[in-house]
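Sequence design from tokenized structure. All designs in this work follow the same two-part layout: the structure record, then the generated sequence. An example of the structure record is given first.
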């Protein structure tokens, strides 16, 4: 058998452990053919990232490869990457095998310009001088979609957005034309439209160069769209592997079926709708804008005013979930903070809150002292990252009883009883009261965050990306819990997310935000099946599902996520002024010129 008939990469019997303990990753076997994409998929702790790092021998110091081989084949024969010296491996890394990491900010040096960092690959591995390396890098920057390659070449990483930094990492990985690209969650930190464009870019470059790709991901939608073969991992072992169409369409292992079932989907069929009349509101935002003054004079700072939110109007019905969906910088989290009274709106903005049905409205922006404390008891927040929102130095009992102490509610014994009740409400064992947050999984920590938010018996919860840091199966459990609590306790939610599939699952009404403005609003089955605005269409087109027949519509993504000047005429901005938000059909609002 000649080298071209052999797989490009053959991993056999790989076992990895930490310290002197037995291997926790074992019996890993898979092949990667030239030009194909193999996805390693699994939840946190499955071992997929450490498996890839073992191939390049960039494991943490405590990790140890117990056994196995990783043969990289070429015309001149095969080499076992696990048996090579460190010096020999340096010739392989960045040359024949490149790697893109999950968070580009941690992978790029903050002290060196982007262009110099990307050029280094050519200078080290291809014997280019600075001038010829720069020419090639600028061409690659243009290829990965930078509108001004020269500016990016001169920029430092902190001067670029997350999507632009990830594009720079792709350019760095691609510039030496590797045989194999290992992409470790390359789009997890990106907005959905940027994710779609980055995945499309990798596929384009792959077609041009014949490169193979190992794609590490927890997202089955990414797998369905981008991979040829899939390896499903759990607890350091392979559960199932095969062609993507076979595994996703007819999964053979119960764990694969569980992952597929846990992936939320957007609706594809709409029910007839009528105008939504809210007879019992709990929260209403009227003409909410928020401007920030960027005072000049500091390092890399320019003076001026930035408008984070502009003219937002919305109403949350009692006992219902109103969701705001949007990408980074859309203003959705600022709206959530204003709704809770944590930020003041600009002059003219009004926040109305009705404590109970039939009560007179309270204007939150005017509250102070005891009145504001009373509102804060009734409106609580669940944060995005349960690890940073829970004090690592406090036991669970102290975390749950602290709000009661602050508001001087109950005796010590009564507070403990309330803490036990809260744990039971979020399906955690009361014996966990004396544990610290680090002893819990991510999903359990988010349950603790929800329990703390419920401590004061609020009637309104603002949930700011409450599931974005969680694995798919855990995300599903938390959404189930939030729905159960809402229905059992009669709570109302203002739900903030960038994930359309999550919003489609939990919301009664959805508002899509872009650059501080609501650009479309409707019930989820209407919004997702009959969107009207090109930006909403882009978000939906970029939403990946574990369905091999649902492919990314990159043209729709590029149009809606692009410059508003390229949108159809009725949606375009007139200078800086957007069209009004108008009701085009009963219950369906769109920012459009009629």
């Amino acid at each position: 058998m000649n080298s071209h008939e052999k797989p490009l990469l053959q991993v056999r019997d790989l076992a990895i452990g930490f310290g002197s303990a037995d291997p926790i990753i074992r019996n890993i076997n898979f092949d990667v053919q030239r030009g194909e994409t193999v996805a390693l998929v699994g939840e946190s702790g499955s071992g997929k990232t450490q498996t890839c790092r073992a191939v390049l021998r960039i494991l943490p110091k405590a990790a140890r490869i117990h056994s196995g081989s990783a043969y990289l084949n070429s015309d001149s024969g095969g080499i076992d990457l696990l048996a090579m010296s460190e010096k020999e491996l340096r010739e392989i890394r960045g040359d024949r095998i490149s790697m893109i990491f999950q968070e580009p900010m941690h992978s790029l040096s903050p002290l060196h310009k982007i262009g110099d960092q990307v050029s280094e690959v050519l200078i080290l591995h291809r014997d280019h001088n600075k001038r010829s390396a720069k020419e090639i890098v600028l061409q690659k920057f243009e290829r990965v979609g930078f509108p001004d390659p020269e500016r990016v070449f001169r920029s430092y990483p902190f001067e670029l957005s997350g999507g632009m930094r990830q594009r720079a990492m792709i350019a760095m990985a691609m510039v030496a034309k590797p045989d194999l690209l290992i992409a470790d969650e390359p789009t997890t930190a990106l907005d959905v439209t940027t994710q779609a464009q980055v995945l499309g870019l990798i596929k384009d470059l792959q077609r041009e160069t014949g490169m193979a790709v190992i794609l590490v991901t927890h997202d089955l939608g990414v797998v369905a769209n981008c991979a040829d073969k899939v390896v499903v991992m759990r607890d350091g072992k392979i559960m199932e592997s095969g062609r993507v169409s076979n595994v996703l369409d007819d999964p053979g292992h119960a764990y694969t079926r569980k992952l597929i079932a846990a992936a939320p989907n957007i609706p594809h069929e709409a029910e007839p709708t009528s105008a939504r009349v809210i007879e019992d509101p709990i929260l209403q935002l009227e003409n909410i804008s928020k401007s920030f003054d960027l005072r000049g004079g500091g390092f890399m700072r320019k003076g001026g005013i930035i408008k984070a939110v502009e003219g937002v109007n919305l109403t949350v019905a009692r006992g219902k979930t109103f969701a705001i969906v949007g990408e980074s910088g859309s203003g959705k989290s600022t709206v959530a903070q204003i709704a809770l009274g944590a930020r003041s709106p600009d002059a003219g903005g009004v926040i109305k809150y009705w404590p109970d049905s039939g009560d007179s409205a309270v204007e939150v922006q005017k509250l102070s002292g005891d009145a504001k404390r009373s509102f804060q008891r009734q409106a609580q927040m669940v944060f995005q990252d349960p690890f940073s929102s829970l004090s690592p130095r406090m036991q669970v009992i102290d975390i749950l009883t602290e709000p009661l102490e602050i508001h001087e509610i109950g005796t010590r014994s009564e507070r403990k009883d309330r803490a036990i009740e809260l744990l039971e409400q979020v399906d955690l064992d009361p014996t966990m009261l004396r544990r610290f947050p680090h002893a819990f999984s991510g999903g359990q920590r988010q349950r603790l965050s929800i329990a703390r938010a419920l401590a004061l018996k609020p009637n309104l919860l603002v949930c700011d990306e409450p599931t974005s840091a969680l694995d798919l199966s855990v995300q599903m459990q938390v959404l189930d819990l939030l729905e159960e609590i809402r229905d059992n306790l009669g709570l109302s939610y203002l739900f903030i997310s960038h994930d359309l599939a999550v919003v489609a699952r939990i919301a009664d009404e959805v508002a899509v935000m872009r650059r501080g403005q609501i650009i479309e609003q409707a019930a989820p089955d209407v919004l997702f099946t009959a969107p009207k605005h090109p930006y909403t269409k882009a978000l939906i087109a970029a939403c990946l599902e574990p369905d091999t027949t649902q492919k990314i519509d990159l043209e729709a993504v590029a149009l809606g996520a692009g410059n508003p000047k390229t949108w159809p005429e009725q949606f375009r901005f007139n200078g800086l002024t957007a069209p009004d938000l108008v009701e085009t059909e009963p219950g369906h609002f769109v920012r459009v010129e009629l």
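Residues 296-301 have pLDDT under 50 and may be disordered. We note this feature because it recurs in several other targets discussed in the main text.
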